[in-house]
Amino acid sequence: MIRERRLAACAVVCFMVGCAGNGEGLDENGRPVGSGGDDEPLTANLQSIQDQVFTPICTQCHTGASAPVGLRLDQDSAFAMLVNAPSTEQPALNRVTPGDPDGSYLIQKLEGTAAVGGQMPLGQPALPEATIAVIRQWIANGAPAASSGPPAVVPMQLHAISSSAGSAILVQADGELNVSTLTVDTVRLIRSGGDGTFDDGNEINVAAHIDVRSLDPTVLAIRAEQNLWVADAYRLTISSQGASAVRDRDGLPVNDFAMQFNIGGSL
Ligand code: HEC
After folding, report:
1. How far apart are CA 133 and CA 221, in angstroms?
2. Distance between Cα 142 and ligand 1 center (Å)
3. How far is CA 259 from CA 126, 159, 188, in A?
């Protein structure tokens, strides 16, 4: 099974990289050292949790291409990787289900009640109860994205968050998209046809399955139909051109977005 093979691969990578677990980012009481100023209290919003927990503590391991179980908790990835995203270890549970802290795998991992693996942060003192209570509160409040201040009047940006064999590519907009504009015409996944090059006429359309993981900001999980990723070079494009452009909810087109990535093989 694809999932099991991926899990094994992740475990090996993590073992080799040896995820540094030296207690950095905690003060003498095991409390997170806030990067957002000494006296700033942790509050139940994602930016505060990011600055005081995820960035200083969790990204010691959970960052980059070899992040354990594919979970990246850096500033640009955390929301899309957590909210309504199925856990790798316990796929029946989401890492974070808005409104349901008890049913969120993240909380089980922080409290040490998860059925699989260790308590987080792995190999370090558990987070103080008060810290976990604040993260619970953020989830109970519906797990909103970090508020980014007043809305900017610029075309919406799309960012790729991750791609790895057998799993979904996450694309996050910086606000709410009009999801009815996400169609097979505007979101296109092709592969090179085996030669690793594009625009030479032998590209193959890949049927893509698009899940909207969250609406505001809009996070899309895009996977090959039935998760069948043939080894090849891939290109994902999201179009802002023409009548069928992807638009935000105010009707403004998003920026053109394109990313290329390789799956398997030696391309
Ligand atoms: C020392 C490295 C390290 C640190 C620091 C660390 N983790 Fe992990 N994390 C891992 C490893 C390795 C796994 C997979 C094995 C396991 O669960 O024990 C994992 C698994 C997880 C999972 C399960 C994800 C899934 O999809 O099943 C969650 C959630 C998680 N970590 C959250 C966190 C959070 C939140 C922090 C910070 C408070 C953190 N981790 C800190 C190494 C780490």
Report:
1. 29
2. 22
3. 38, 9, 11
Question: Which of 3, 55, 71 for a ligand 1 pocket mutation test, highest count of atoms within 8 Å of Cβ?
Answer: 71
Q: Tokens 């270890």 appear where?
A: 89
Would you state the structure tokens that stand for residue 192, as one six-digit string?
Answer: 């090179």
58 with 35: CB under 8 angstroms?
no
- The amino acid at residue 117 is G
Q: What is the token pair recorded at 253?
A: 């087109």
* Pair of tokens at residue 227: 């998760």
**Torsion sign across C-alpha atoms 197, 201, 202, 204:** positive
Q: 121, 24 in Cβ contact below 8 A?
A: no
To which residue do tokens 């193959």 refer? Answer: 204
Rounded CA-CA distance 179/171 in Å is: 13
Q: 181-210: per-residue pLDDT in tens?
A: 998 888 999 999 999 999 999 999 999 889
pLDDT digits (tens, 9 = 90+) for 79-102: 999 999 999 999 999 999 999 999
Q: Which of 19, 55, 69 to mutate to test the pocket of ligand 1 (most atoms within 8 A of CB)?
A: 69
Distance CA 210, CA 186 (A): 12
Rounded Cα distance, 209 and 212, in Å: 10
